[in-house]
Amino acid sequence: MKYEYCGISIGDDIKDIIEKFDISKIEYRDSMKRLYFKFGNFSKKTNLECFFSIPIKTGKVIYIIIFDENFKLFNELEIWQELTDEIKEKYELYYDEDDDGIYLSKKYKYLKIGVDGGYGEMEEFKDYKERIFSFIFDAQEDIRWILQ
Description:
It is a single chain. This protein is globular. A hairpin with a 3-residue loop joins strand 7 and strand 8. Strands 3-4-5-6-12-11-10-9 form an eight-stranded antiparallel sheet. It has a two-stranded antiparallel sheet with strand order 1-2. The chain has a two-stranded antiparallel sheet with strand order 7-8. It has one domain: CATH 3.40.33.10. It has 148 residues and is mainly β. Helix content is 12%, strand content 36%.
């Protein structure tokens, strides 16, 4: 699997992608020592913006979060789609006990899926069905030792 969104992939070097971004869409967070790049793509329902982050020490993309309702993962999975048992089985998803509302994949190392539990956080979804809220490509654990 290629962990990619809008032509940006996990592991891309900042020098190879920086020209793709308007400087006003780049934010530096000193507490994390990272640059955050905003794609400008928003979820229509939540108004959350897709972004990725690059630690200053590595200069590589390590985290991409997608809220874009037009994005399809594996040409099948979409934001607000119900997360069924069949999907969980197919992609070997299991609930992350340490991070509420997140599923991890045994099959795809860097894939996480954020879910809305259908408990009324979203006005139109009060049916207690888990729905895909975000796709997250997360390689932070692989580089954590470099940053220490």
